[in-house]
Amino acid sequence: MLELYHDWRSFCSIKVRLCLAEKGLAWRSRLIDLMKLEHTTPEYLRLNPNGVVPTLVHDGVPIHESTLINEYLDEVFPDIPLMPKDPVDRARARFWVKYEDDVLHPAIKPATFALMMSPELALRSERELEELVAAHPNRQRAEEYRRVAREPIDHQKVEAAKATMIAALDRLERRLSEAPWLGGQSYSLADVAAAPFIDRLDELNLSGLWSGKPALTEWISRTKARPAYRIAIPEQGQRFAAAHPVQLAPAR
Ligand SMILES: N[C@@H](CCC(=O)N[C@@H](CS)C(=O)NCC(=O)O)C(=O)O
After folding, report:
1. Which of 14, 83, 185, 203 is the 20 to 30 Å CA partner of 246?
2. Whose CA is nearest to atom 13 of ligand 1?
3. Atom of ligand 1 nearest to the CA of 13
4. Considering only CA atoms, which residue is closest to atom 11 of ligand 1?
5. Average pLDDT for residues 115-124, to the nearest whole number?
6. Cα–Cα distances in Å, from 127 out to 34, 96, 131, 133?
């Protein structure tokens, strides 16, 4: 049995849900509400000591880290393969999966915290915030929660992250001008990893960032048209409820 501990809103959870859906795998949903801080309970920390979602549990065995979970699923359920066969294409696919971990996910975080999570975090009492900070296994992340809940939005930080996003979109456009998918000729875990970035930019009202990028725009249409995409992304009622109106400067 496959169980996924996830939050509908979480970027990394979308990545794993997308992989599961592409492979047509059945899984049991175990919801962990990040806004209710369910990822820092002793019970969840026993399952995932990093205190993050997602966690896949396969026949009782927990697997951590969205990238490694997707690799695991591709190895254990090879019927619908999500890695190219050609070694060069495989290396390219791995590059883009790593790029998502190293660049795309970190770039999206400042805007997510400031614009989407802070309205809900601001409602926490001092005591609740202190409990969160004390329970969270990652000091830096815990302090970020406290800062975002109580301090004004750091627009400079959000704008700096936006510059990284723009550079990343330029890079994606160059790659997709060479090949239809990030890993080459077929849809792969690389496309799975990049898709949540697009969903989050949409949610942040930043889809203007890919105007003038025809190859990327075309890839986005093909990615969104896949049945798995609809299954994996959150529905309206599963998204952040009280997000700040997006105050980022318009796209170049
Ligand atoms: N590298 C990890 C990152 C996991 C991660 O940062 N998850 C976020 C949601 S996308 C989370 O649980 N955040 C809650 C927190 O850090 O307090 C992965 O890919 O699984």
Report:
1. 14
2. 52
3. 10
4. 52
5. 86
6. 17, 41, 6, 10
